[in-house]
Input
Amino acid sequence: MEQNERLKLLKKILLADTKEVTDSLIADVEKLSSTLNEPLELSQKVDPLIDKKIKKLIDDMPQKLSPVITSALKAEIKNSQDAVVEALFPIIGKMIKKYIANEIKLLNERINKQLKKAFSFKNFFRSKFGKKDIANEIIASSNEANVLQIFVIEKASGLLVAKYAKEEYDTMDDDLIAGMLTAIKSFVEDAFKLGGQNLETISYELYTLHIQSFHNYYVTAVVNGTYTNEFKDILEDKILDFAEKGISKEEINNSEVFSSRLKIYFSEQIV
Amino acid sequence: MSKLSKKIALVGPFGVGKTSLFRRFIDDAFSEDYKSTLGVQIQKKVIQMDNGTALSMILWDTEGHEEISQSRSSYLLGSHAFIYVFDLTRIDTYKNINEQIDFLKKNYPNVLIKIIGNKLDTVALKRVKKSLEEHNVNYDCLTSAKTGENVAELFVEIAVDLTN
Output
């Protein structure tokens, strides 16, 4: 064998493995390059990793951020106590007031129930001699229900027919109140498909709107104080009584006369 | 001086400018921002009539519906007048208008109905009148809530009709 041929053979033996490795590397690089240049393919490869990272970040976020936020809030509240009190006071004040009013209402009803149950003979005896229920009187008097305004509203159109308001409680435009009350009332009755039932009360904070429906009209009484079931019964009777005796059929269409009749009937304390 | 209250409901499809007409008449204001009315909004304007009557026009601006039959009937009940508003720039708001008006006439008899084409400022009057004629639309008034054109006149006309 010639020297040249031997050299060729040696080359072939030595470089055979390297060529295979090189070919394989070139193929890998081409595949990688095509993956990198093809957004869809790249997205398929990378998205799961990003999703995993994001999920981990979301999972870790409360743990990592909450101590920082809590301490920042604590420091801020400590440094601006006056501002915090000023901001929270109206809300907390109202909440406490509402809570107390509600608790008094519950207590009042509970005591009444207990007294009626436990001391029925005593109650009978006292009422016979003209004495009133003392517990009821003491507790209810602290937050007596009081009719502030009465609106008589035409059911279909929402137009105000008559109105009485205690002077200090006169509110915004009565016609708009009558219209909006009618819209709210009919919306509730329509939306919840209550099968011919009527909206009877609307409560807001310390006030209750007592709504009593008649055929063509409805009456809304704005009540503040403790609106108990007992008060509701009395007010319902009073309104029914007014409808029966307080106004004649001829006077119904005369708004001014109607309003003056309402004033006569409802200006005094009901209970 | 006698006082009188009348309920007037603005009805019609979405985005035809019912609320804009309402605002133009009540506050003499206009806004380009479109916010769809949810439910109803109510406002009042008192008009002093020549005969001495103070007429309180209680306006109910109702939410838009493609079909008037989809409107909440409780918002329409007891109305003394309906203002049916359509959009002069959108044929779909007036091509079936006669069916809508027939529905109102059938379900709310004896109620005054005014048919109003709004957005007059954005159309060529001649072309739009031709289109209205082709679709057999018997309108009462064409208005622009944006410029205020014919808005006050419309409500005064309704007030006169309701007090006569």
Observations:
- The first helix of chain A runs from residue 3 to 37.
- Residues 6 and 12 of chain A are 10 Å apart (CA to CA).
- The two ends of chain A are 133 Å apart (CA to CA).
- Chain A touches chain B at residues 154-160, 173, 175-176, 179-180, 182-183, 186-187, 189-190, 255 (CB under 8 Å).
